[in-house]
Amino acid sequence: MERAHTLTIQKTCDKDFIRRVEEASEQEVSKCYQCGNCSASCNYTYVYDYPVNQIMRLIQLGQKDIVLRSRSVWLCAACQACTTRCPCNIDVACVMEALRVMSREENTVSLKDVQMFYDEFLKSVKTFGRVFETGLLPVYNLKAMKPFGDMDLAPKVLQKGKLHFLPSRIKGRKHIAEIFERFEEQGKKKQEPREVNEPSHSQ
Amino acid sequence: MNPHIHNEEMFMNRRVAYYQGCSLEGLAHEFDTSTREVCAALGIELVEIPDWNCCGSTPAHSLDPVLSAALSARNLAIAVREGADVVMTPCPGCLKSLKESLEVYHNPHQRQKLLDILGMPFDGEVKAVSVLQLLYEQVGPEAIRERVVRPLSGHSLVPYYGCLLSRPAHFARFDDPENPVSMDRLMEAVGASVPDFPYKTECCGATYGVTRNEIVGKLSGRILDMALGVGAEAVAVACPLCQQNLDLRQGQLNRQWKRNFDIPVVYITQIIGLALGIDPKKLGLHKLFVDAGVLLEKRESENSRAV
Asked: Which chain A residues are within 8 Å of B57, Cβ to Cβ?
C-alpha cells in the first residue's frame, strides 16, 4: 500500500486528476471538509486501506496513483450510506463509482478477482441477454482459483429446484451484443492509441 | 401520458409494465411469483416487458454509467412502445439501473451518447418504481388492511430494507433514507407486530458473497443477530440480494459466527400474500431455504384491535 508523503505531496499532485474526477462524477469534491461522517457510516471501513474520507482528501490533493490503486475503491458496495450522511451533499458513492471506472481505464484495478467476476457477469449478459447464474459461478471460481467457492450451496439450490442448467437466451441478444460493441467502439475513439474498455484479465 | 388510458379512472395506476430481472428468474423465483400473486389479488395488472434483458447490475456500473444506462434503456423503451408509463420491478438493484438510465437520458451531456449506444428510439417518458413503492403508495396499508383474511397476529417480524430502496433520498424519492417505514406500516396492516429495528438500512454485504464471502458473513450475521435481539421470529425483505445473503447463506453465517441462526427471511410480498389468504405454495414459501412454516401458525392476537 502506498502512502502519501507530506513533504513530496506537491510533486505528486495531479491537478488534471482532480478535474477529471469532478467532471466524471459531477460532484464538487473540493467541498469536503473532512467531517468523517462518510467513514463513520461506512460498513466497509474495516476492510479498506483508506477510509472513504481519506479517499476524498487524497482526491483533493491530486494523488491519482494512490486513489486509483486503492483497495477501498473496489471494496465499496455502493450502499449509499456515505452519500446519505454527507453534510456537504456530495454524492460520495457516485465519486467512488467514477473512480472504479477510471481505475479500469488506467488499468490500476486493485482487486483483480472482483473485476474478473464483473467481467464474467457482463460476458454472460453480452452472450445471452440475461445473466446465467449457474454458468457464471463455476467459471469465475475456476478462474479465481477458488474451485470450491460456494460449493456448500449447490445441493441446497438444487433441492429447491432453483438450479438452471440452461441459460435463458433472449431473442434480442444480438441487440445487446451490439450495445456492448457500440460502447467499445466509442471507447476506442475516445482514447485512440490505448487499448481500453474491452474487459480484460491479462493479470 | 398514454392516450389509451384517458377514459378509465385509476387505470393508469392499475396497469403497470413489469420488469422481473434475472434474480427473479433464478434464486429469487418466489419473489416473482409472490409479486404476481399479490398484485393480481389487489387488482394491479402486471404486463411483463417482452424479451427483457439484464440491467447489467453492479458490473455494468463499474464499466461505464452510460453503458449501464443503455442496457436499462432497452427495457424502458420496449415498455414505452407497449404503452406503459410506469415500470415496476421488485429488485432494488434493477430499479437503480432503470432510474439511473432515466437520469442519464435527462442529462443533456449524456443523452446523445446513450441514444447512440442504445440504437433504438427512446423518449424517456416513463417512471420506474419498486413493488414496495407500488404497494405502499398506490394501494396503501389501509386498503390492504381491509383485504386481510388471515391476519399475522402474534407474529413478530422486523423489516430489513437494505441500501437502495430509500437511498439516496434525492434519487429514491421514496420513504425516509434513514428510517424507512413503508414495510413497517404494511406489516402492521396485516396484523403482525413490528419491533423497532435499528439495522433497517445497514448493508448486508451486497455482491461480495461470491468474491469476499467473509464480508457478507460479518455484515449479514450482524443483521440476523440484531433481529433476534429485538425479538423477531422472521425478517422481512424486499431485495433478492439481501434475501440471498441472509437466507441462502445463513449456514455460512452460522459457521463464521459459531451460532445457530434459524430465522426465516421472507419477502414482503409473501407476507402480504399470506394475509390476503393466498395459498402459501403459490407464494413460494416452500422455496425459501430457512423454513418459514412458523408464519403459518395461527396465534391469538395480542391486541384485538390490531386488525
From this structure: 121, 131
CA angle B81, B85, B87 (to 5 degrees): 90
What residues have CB less than 8 Å from B243, skipping those under 6 apart? B28, B31, B237, B265, B267
Cell of B182: 413503508
Q: Domain range spanning residue B35?
A: 9-131
* Residue burial A181-193, b: 16+ Cβ < 10 Å; e: rest: ebbbebbeeeeee
**Residues B113 and B161 placed together within one structural domain of the fold:** no
Interface contact flag, B163 A79, Cβ < 8 Å:
yes
| Chain A nearest C-alpha distance from B118 (Å) | 6
Domains plus CATH for chain A? 6-105 (1.10.1060), 112-190 (no CATH)
B169 and B290 belong to one structural domain? yes
Confidence check: pLDDT of B304 > 80:
no
- Looking at the structure, tell me whether residues B168 and B280 fall in a common domain: yes
How confident is the model over B88-97, as pLDDT tens digits?
999 999 999 9
Residue B49: closest C-alpha in chain A: A170
With an 8 Å Cβ cutoff, is A143 touching chain B? Answer: no
Q: Which three cell numbers stand for residue B111?
A: 443523452
Burial class (CB in 10 A: 0-12, 13-18, 19+), A127: middle
Instruction: Return d(Cα B73, Cα B43) in angstroms, integer.
Output: 28
Q: pTM of the entire structure?
A: 0.92
